[in-house]
Design brief:
Structural class: alpha+beta
CATH topology: Porin
Shape: globular
Strand order of the largest sheet: 1-2-3-4-5-6-7-8-9-10-11-12-13-14-15-18
Radius of gyration: 28 Å
Number of strands: 18
Number of domains: 1
Number of helices: 6
Mean pLDDT: 89
CATH class: Mainly Beta
Low-confidence stretches: 21-43
Distance between the termini: 57 Å
Helix content: 10-25%
Length: 433
């Protein structure tokens, strides 16, 4: 019976084909036969290739199907109208030089995310970064016992989705911080330069983090890490954080974060590279600091994003930071906030603005007590998908004489900069990196 049905289907297909030819006036000839034969041959070859594909080759293809390899290149030219000594823009995270063609960052991001539906509960991510940005986020022995060991590793962590409830996602390794609204890669921000709070709040952490979707609108995350900007711990104290992400509607996202740690080191850095003082790796220090500095570091951070329309986005950020050297020491505080605005006039053109205030009582951020403000306006022009031209005007100002000028020892209360940035990115990873 099944064979007869197949014969009938074939006969009907032939009749429909002959009817189409009669209506169009075309007479089937050699060209049609050749095309049909080519399709048959092509299909047969594909089947033969699939049959002959070794399991090892199939696993390689599956790997690349689930893995994204992404690259970005970010450079700029900036001019500081103070003409500062050394061509240095103070308080800038990435656009640190004036009157110089500069490489902000060149990075490669390799990621394979878990795919529970496909039966793979684990994944991994590796970000390698080079350029001036590297010196900011992985700069010196002030925050790292051995910064050169990890200098170009921006992120490196493995992921496992534990089959608990809706799935607990656990990461281990070095990962970017989530305190503050802005992120590492320029293409994912409204402005070319970064805010004071991006420059001050922790850039990265090393340890564990776990997240769980409490509901469709609320996600909770917990961290247990070495500390702020510490790939290797320098005091033996483990810092913790609790982060909550709430999405009441598809156009509003709110994040509230609390971080607590002990960020004073208990041993002096060792000169590195040099000869090891013990049969171990260079740079590991046994020069203890006494008395032990046990003061705590606390951060309250919150920000919200409002996609008011498809073209207009508003974001607000507020921060409160307090630090003590000893438990009974006078506290130093950083408080303030920022507002971010972006309007997409056309698919290729957008304007972004940032308005920020930071009170630095005790010099935690800038090294001296002062009130800082900055206003930034940025124009985006997307020359092509993955190629962005960004022009920016920024004004920093303080209530104290702080910013460099062209005369050593002569300071000003403000600095103004104009910057032109070029950003390229490639790869299949969607959204923010």
């Amino acid at each position: 019976m099944r064979r007869k049905i197949e014969q009938l289907e074939a006969r009907i297909s032939q009749m429909e084909y002959e009817k189409t030819v009669a209506i169009s006036g075309d007479v089937p000839g050699k060209k049609v036969s050749s095309e049909l034969n080519a399709k048959v041959v092509s299909t047969s070859q594909e089947k033969e290739q699939n049959k002959g594909l070794a399991p090892e080759d199939r696993s390689v293809l599956d790997f690349f199907r689930g893995t994204t390899i992404n690259m970005t290149l970010d450079g700029y030219y900036g001019y500081n109208f103070n003409r500062p000594v050394g061509g240095i823009n103070l308080l800038r995270a990435y656009d640190v030089t004036s009157n110089s063609f500069s490489l902000n960052q060149a990075a490669i991001v390799i990621e394979q995310s878990p795919n529970v539906e496909a039966g793979r509960r684990f994944g991994m991510r590796l970000d390698l970064q080079y350029g001036q940005a590297t010196e900011t986020v992985q700069g010196n022995a002030g925050n790292e016992p051995r910064p050169q060991v990890y200098r170009n590793v921006w992120q490196a962590y493995g992921t496992y989705v534990a089959p608990i409830g809706k799935g607990v996602t656990v990461d281990f390794g070095k990962f970017a911080g989530a305190l503050g609204y802005e992120t590492n890669y320029t293409k994912d921000n409204f402005n070319y330069s970064r805010a004071y709070f991006f420059n001050y709040l922790p850039f990265y952490h090393f340890g564990f983090r776990a997240s769980y979707p409490v509901s469709d609108k609320l996600t909770a995350m917990y961290w247990l890490v070495n500390g702020a900007n510490q790939s290797e711990d320098f005091n033996g104290f483990k810092s913790q954080a609790l982060l909550l992400t709430y999405k009441p509607t598809k156009r509003v996202t709110v994040q509230a974060n609390y971080y607590a740690g002990q960020e004073q080191r208990d041993r002096n850095p060792a000169l590195n590279p040099t000869f090891a003082s013990f049969p171990t790796q260079p740079g590991l220090s046994t020069d203890l600091i006494r008395p032990v500095l046990r003061g705590r570091f606390h951060v309250l951070d919150a920000y919200a994003t409002f996609n008011i329309t498809d073209k207009l986005t508003l974001a607000l950020e507020g921060d409160y930071v307090i630090n003590r050297i000893q438990t009974n020491s006078a506290p130093a505080r950083v408080t303030g906030g920022a507002a971010y605005l972006r309007y997409q006039f056309q698919p290729k053109f957008a304007l972004g603005g940032r308005f920020e205030y930071l009170s630095d009582r005790g010099g935690l951020f800038s090294g001296s007590t002062q009130a800082l403000k900055e206003n930034t306006v940025t124009a985006d022009y997307k020359l092509a998908e993955g190629f962005l031209l960004r022009g920016e005007w920024r004004r920093d100002f303080s209530n104290q004489l702080f910013f460099l000028t062209n005369r050593p020892g002569l300071l000003k209360k403000e600095q103004n900069t104009a910057t032109l940035g070029l950003v390229w990115w490639f790869g299949r990873k969607e959204g923010s990196w």
